[in-house]
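Appendix B, Record 12. Input sequence as logged:
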Amino acid sequence: MTSTADGTRKVVQVGGHDVAYHDVGDGVPVVFLHGSGPGVTGWANFGNNVDHLPGIRSIVVDQPGFGASGRDEVYEDNYLNISANAVVGLMDALGLEQAGIVGNSMGGDVAVTVTLDHPERISRMLLNGPGGTGVPVLGPSPSEGIARLMDFYLDPTRERIVAWLKTMVFDQRILTEELIESRFAAATSPGAVKNLQDAYATFYNPALTGDVPLWGRVHNIRQPTIICWGRDDRVAPVEGGLLPARRMPKCDLRIYSRCGHWVQVERKKDFERACVEHFVV
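Logged structural output:
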């Protein structure tokens, strides 16, 4: 039986707000965290993977302000910290003393934040293209993908979301009309534009960024980690994986050819195999 978004969605209260998540499968609990693109949700990122992860209980989260999860009206902390606190609160609500964690893009940076701040709660980690966890020294900053993302949020048109989506994947055939329409509808739903604008504003506010960048702290992570990165990533350039792979003592870096920012989509079976091999031990 194929899992569906509506059939697996649950909600708990954390800090006075709804945290929505999908609970699929049985086995080792693993929390999945989506990225930050227009129209993103936990299910949009990982819904096509969860039925192919034997031995894993997939807890696929909508981060604060995304999907069906609530948020504070004003963000008074860095969004990575806000989301990390929501993840720990969700684990508390589910009675999970420890879990594995998977993060895609911004979700990878949130996963790293949780692991650094609450190391006893995370057993193992797998990251897909976590931009802030590395240092892209060869490509432009912001990257092409982030520039297209900002263009969309300045003027959220269908043309601009297509331009952004084209930077996300190596194989452009993935961008079907159905995918484009669903992401555009979600990205322009009430509050969606403001939510991402507010989240990104915390990344550029000196009062909220902290004294040490995320990549400057990764050497403190002792959990076994796999970092998956698309060789052709136009959002978070692949060289961003080199520093954490060197500095994290139990980290393996896997680079996938003919793959952009969505490893879990373009190298679906390889991503699923990596999850099972890594977490089901």
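The chain has one domain: 5-279.
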